[in-house]
Amino acid sequence: xxxxxxxxFLATALGLLVLAGCQGESKSAAAQGQGGGAPPPSPVGIVExxxxxxxxxxxxxxxxxxxxxxxxxxxxxxxxxxxxxEQGSDVQEGDPLFQxxxxxxxxxxxxxxxxxxxxxxxxxxxxxxxxxxxxxxxRNTVGAANLETAVxxxxxxxxxxxxxxxxxxxxxxxxxxxxxxxxISGRIGRAIVTEGALVSTTGxxxxxxIQQLDPVYADIQQPVSQLLRLREALRTxxxxxxxENVAQVxxxxxxxxxxxxxGRLLFSEATVEETSGQVTLRAEFPNPDDxxxxxxxxxxxxxxxxxxxxxxxxxxxxxRDTAGQAFLYLVNGNSTAEQRNVTVARVVGxxxxxxxxxxxxDKVIADGFQKIGPGSPVAPTPWTPVGxxxxxxxxxxxDGTAVGAGTQAPAPTPAGNAAASGTTNPAPQDAGSQRASTxxxxxxxxxx
Length: 448
Known about the structure:
By secondary structure, the protein is α+β, with helices and mostly antiparallel strands. It has 4 domains: about 40-55 and about 310-445, conserved putative lor/sdh protein from methanococcus maripaludis s2 fold, CATH 2.40.420.20; about 60-65 and about 210-305, Elongation Factor Tu (Ef-tu), domain 3 (Beta Barrel); about 75-95 and about 180-205, CATH 2.40.50.100; about 100-175, Helix Hairpins. The chain contains 6 helices and 20 strands. The strands form 4 sheets. Strands 2-9-12-11-10-13 form a 6-stranded antiparallel barrel. Strands 6-5-3-8 form a 4-stranded antiparallel beta sheet. A 3-stranded mixed beta sheet has the order 19-1-20. It is elongated.
């Protein structure tokens, strides 16, 4: 291109420079609008902590034991000729179980009966002699010494008859013992001996075992340190006792299911086991369906008191650092996230009771903390788990399952819409993998 004059060339050059400057400013403004400014607040779900009455429950391991147990043993010796019961069945007290050969015992009974008859005949003769002697003495035919001898003979005959009757009774008892009967009612196990076996009263092995399974005991082990803390809390009034010397007891089976019948705590052991430092508690549970079998491993929840001013947060809100220290994210007065170390006293269902580091009125972040860090701006909204009541408890939560982080769906806000566009915040991480030692993306962006 050729210019006819220097003035036209100068004007054209100035116009090009102005146009280039305008395009540079437009690009700079666009770049600043896309990522050069501060990020918008991250939407989070919060729970405002309020004091509430929560039962102090200790979930302890235990084993099921029968309330009564008896070993079936023979009282006389002999050969077993018959097993009467069915193994594994329920028997009643007095039911016949084994039959020992009764022949020798029957002979002993017949011999004793003969002895009783002989002694009875001797006594009859002695009485008649005494009566005749007494009549002769009355007529002064014989002396008084003869009467004394006759009376003594009669009394001796009476004693011999009593002894013979006792021998007959002993023989009849042995004959009855030849039929081995159930000493208690309950569930009988397998037969240890079979027909043809020789048994004796001095044998060490039982013939069978009977266990009473309704009700049953649950023997529980509790650390003595936990028992001492509970007693101290009751003494200071921090925990209120449910009722004097009474504790409500619930049972959870080994497969995680809840036992439908509540139990009662019977006693607490007065001594501490030296090897484990634990005390034994015993609870009693009804067992009408024979669900609980001896030796079954269970977990027993014992309600030992009520904490009237407990502070609880959802389990998913509790995070832990690499050292295992529990902490929470809270929303402070200027709508930024604050990290605070806490102490978890116990877990009740899907909530954790905090004993230290938390105060009433604190706003705890229960959802959305995967995208924030200490000092990050947040947009708080009330949090409730999906498909649950406002208290955050569901049927599944009773098993201690926490609602996953990411199930919260807070009301849409401008900040939330901006975050949903994906232009500022990275994809959320899993709640279980969040660590305080890893700086979140938003925190680093706001620091710049």
